[in-house]
Input
Amino acid sequence: MQSVLVVDDNPINLKTIQEILKEMYKVYPAPSGERAINFLEKTIPDLILLDIEMPGMDGLQVINRLKQDSRWLDIPVIFITALEDRVKEEQAFQMGAVDYIHKPISAGVMLKRVHLHIELQQYRKTLEKLVELKTTQLLRSQDTILEILANVTSYRDNNTGGHIQRTSMFTERIVNHLFELGFHQYRLNRNYADNIIKTSKLHDIGKVGISDSILLKSGKLTKEEFREIKRHTTLGAKMIDDAMRELGDDSTFLLVAKEIVYSHHEWWNGAGYPLGLSGDDIPLSGRIMAVSDVYDALVSDRPYKRAYTHAQAMEVMWEETGTHFDPHLMHMINKIMPEFAAVSNQMKDEAFALI
Output
């Protein structure tokens, strides 16, 4: 049974309203604004009937208090008054009232108004739950699609599966650390941060368009082969562009994915590819991904090199800070870089080798 809190300093009015509503609703009477607030600390009703003119805390003061507290913000409030004061009526609506009933009270009018607004409130709550459910389902679908797409690349190369998972974990640590530090120059809100973490797994998706003879070559690449493999950035960005156009979707999720794909090989000094961006013109997502990507390449075995130790990798990366890497970013994340070594040791390439 839905409940209604009735707030009126007149005991006769309280009794009358209770008699009108008691067959359909649980009614809680409160003889003052102060008593109503005390009641709300313990119980949240489905609707409030609130008299305007009361000694002490009047109805306008009560609703003002309600709208300042997240626990009570969404409770529908219907004002009851004998006054024909249009100014106060307008003020009540501006403060968040959903309706207005004049005294003397009509039982039929009150029942219909109360029923209408409780029904609307229940509908709103149901709709919010449905939206929340659909949003959760969409996020799960996004995560599943990301894993599938990331695995497309890993099936081309045994080394890639481990690289994707490790760089994703490096990126997550960097992003969360920056978010906790709250460096405003990076404009890193929670939504953008989460999208960087999720879509970092797609940074090499464009490699599906590179031939096996180059992608799986055991020796050092020729200049022509290197030019070809650099195309994975633009190929990947085009894949995402095509998906956005096909889906009619320009959501932040896909835009961040595209940023990472095309910009994770850009250099702070402009010497990178494919666009030769420099400094803050490189998206933050790309600058973060560059750190994760290069660190993993340095500490991993490759056909043309042995894995560096963490210390050796950091030495190389500090030498390239200000040329390859964003110097502000590197100094801010220096504290958490030792965590990368632990991730690398726990997630070696052998664990991702295809059978």
Remarks:
- The longest helix spans residues 107-154.
